[in-house]
Every structure is written in C-alpha cells, then in structure tokens.
C-alpha cells in the first residue's frame, strides 16, 4: 500500500499522474500539466454545498454533499476514479487543500471499488505554492542569460538548438509580438506559471549550468511573465542575434504567413484561411496608432492585396512588401533603441551559429 505524499518536487519531476477532484470551474482557472479533472462535485453541486457551509456550517455541508452525490451519480463518479486508478497505479488524488474532497474520494474508492489510492497532502494550494517558490528562487539564484535581437532574426530557433533554454513563447502558445497569436488558445495565466516553474525545476534537477530565455516584454500575448522573473530579466546579461533584412523577411514570411495559415487551416478546415486573414488584419490594427493614420492605411492595403492573391492562387510573394515595410518603419527603430539601452549588458553579438556556439561555450565554463 502506498502512502499519501507531500513530496511535491518529485511529483513534478517524474510527471506523476494526478486526479484533480476539484470542480470544473476551479480546474479551468489553473491546474498542472497532464492532470485529469475527475471532480467529486460538479460546479452546481459545489456552489450549493458552499452556500450551505456559509449558512449552516461544515457538518450540514457534508450531509448535503452526500445527498447530492448519491445513487447513479455516485456510482458513475466512482467508476471514473477507479478507471483512472487502474490506468495509473502510481498516481495520486488531490483537491484544493488536500482536505475533505480528496479524503472522500479516497474513502469511496476503498469502500466501493476496493482500491487503495493515496492523496497529495496539502492539495492544489500547497503544490501551487511550491511552484511559485521554485520560480522565485530560480529568478534570484540561477544563471540566466537572454537572447535579444531584431524581429525575425530567429531567436526561437536559437532556443530550440540549446538544451538549457526556456521557451516562454512555446509555454504561452504565442509568438510574443503584436502578430504572435496562434490558431489555438493560450493557457490560463496560472497554467502558464505552473508550466514555467516545472520547466525550471526540471532543468535545475538535470544540473543546468545556465538558463537561456528570449528577451521578452512582460506580456507574451495575454500571459504575464511572473514578476520575480521579469524583474530579473531587466538585469540579466544578453546576447544579441543578428541577421540580414532579407533573411529576416523570409523567416517572418514562413512563420507568420505560411506556417500560421497552415495552423489555422489544420485547426478549422475550410474556414481556417478566413480566420488567419482576420487575425493578421487585427494584428495590424493593434499597432495602427503607432504606425500613424497614413502608414497604417498603406500597409493595410498592401496586406489586403497579399491576402487576396494568397486566397486565389496560394502565392505568398506579395506579403514580403508589408513585412519589409513594417520592419523598416516600426520594429527596427524600436529594437535599435532597446539595444542602445541594453548595450552594457550585451556579452556577445553575432549571427545564429556564432550565438549558439557562444552560449554553449559559456555554459561549459560558467559555474553552476
């Protein structure tokens, strides 16, 4: 028989399967990667029990819970928990604080299905606190370095070539810029923070000698970089990635037009191109004030023409014009200003292969 656990670190390092007994409304606000929501009570039942608890106390609330979850409903839920337990013999149950709900699931599994299944003591709240502490400690005590550079230089490609990188944009499911929206939704803020903390925890356990991040704004789409890490990013050293304008235009064309269009079509089928087009146009609208009235109108007209040509023939050549204009008029001046402000923190500047080699060599010589 396995015992209840409070070894949160090992749970996350080993990707241990966990059953979340909280109500769906709680789960949707934030959970942990790979966890399955098999609630003791649905949202309506939880609301009724919560109201009863406030008005009549704990015992009355427990009795109401037993009346609500009974008969066929109870049998179906126990079967779902039992199926999870049989499929995941090394897993655990948790609820919000590791209290009554997970205890009851545990008791019913034992009495009704003959299955001993352990709980996570402290529940979701304790595990969440552990991850936030992990993140804060890493931000203050780990050897971080940022990858900066003009738009389209391939900063994400650099991260993909390194074992010691943390891809914030991948975790946030967003490319970070005004044009960064993907075809699928972003995670909830809490999910973003939890996934980030687990990535840092696993890197730490693997003995990472440095942690390489892209130099991001506070918001990656609607996901906000946790404050301790973002504050650290204002002082961490940088490398600056360089590439030609032509190469950058081609990379942006691939990532933000060809591949993104394919994402939308894969996700939505025939309606995917229309959604892709709307997303691209809205991204331009989002920066229209910074472009100025005439600048926005000119780029919007070029973009509309490019999208019309892509819709009719599949050709994407016309997109290069608005991409290059946007780099010259908007992104490059902004990044040039940022580079000037961060010049004292830049340890190295160069093209992609040179930057990767520098970062690999830096990790090899820097102390852990």
Automatic annotation (TrEMBL):
Domain Rhodanese: 12-136
Protein's GO biological process: tRNA wobble uridine modification
List of catalytic residues: 95
PROSITE patterns xref list: RHODANESE_3
KW Flavoprotein (keyword) present: no
Alphabetic keyword roster: Selenium, Transferase
Keyword Ion transport part of the UniProt annotation: no
SUPFAM superfamilies: P-loop containing nucleoside triphosphate hydrolases, Rhodanese/Cell cycle control phosphatase
GO terms assigned for molecular function: transferase activity, transferring alkyl or aryl (other than methyl) groups; tRNA 2-selenouridine synthase activity
Reactions the enzyme catalyzes: 5-methylaminomethyl-2-thiouridine(34) in tRNA + selenophosphate + (2E)-geranyl diphosphate + H2O + H(+) = 5-methylaminomethyl-2-selenouridine(34) in tRNA + (2E)-thiogeraniol + phosphate + diphosphate; 5-methylaminomethyl-2-thiouridine(34) in tRNA + (2E)-geranyl diphosphate = 5-methylaminomethyl-S-(2E)-geranyl-thiouridine(34) in tRNA + diphosphate; 5-methylaminomethyl-2-(Se-phospho)selenouridine(34) in tRNA + H2O = 5-methylaminomethyl-2-selenouridine(34) in tRNA + phosphate; 5-methylaminomethyl-S-(2E)-geranyl-thiouridine(34) in tRNA + selenophosphate + H(+) = 5-methylaminomethyl-2-(Se-phospho)selenouridine(34) in tRNA + (2E)-thiogeraniol
InterPro entries to which the protein is assigned, alphabetical: AAA_SelU, P-loop_NTPase, Rhodanese-like_dom, Rhodanese-like_dom_sf, SelU
Domain of life: Bacteria
Protein family (similarity comment): Belongs to the SelU family.
Function (record text): Involved in the post-transcriptional modification of the uridine at the wobble position (U34) of tRNA(Lys), tRNA(Glu) and tRNA(Gln). Catalyzes the conversion of 2-thiouridine (S2U-RNA) to 2-selenouridine (Se2U-RNA). Acts in a two-step process involving geranylation of 2-thiouridine (S2U) to S-geranyl-2-thiouridine (geS2U) and subsequent selenation of the latter derivative to 2-selenouridine (Se2U) in the tRNA chain.
Subunit organization: Monomer.
PANTHER family recorded: TRNA 2-SELENOURIDINE SYNTHASE
Name of the protein described by the UniProt record: tRNA 2-selenouridine synthase
Organism (species): Stutzerimonas marianensis
Classification lineage: Bacteria, Pseudomonadati, Pseudomonadota, Gammaproteobacteria, Pseudomonadales
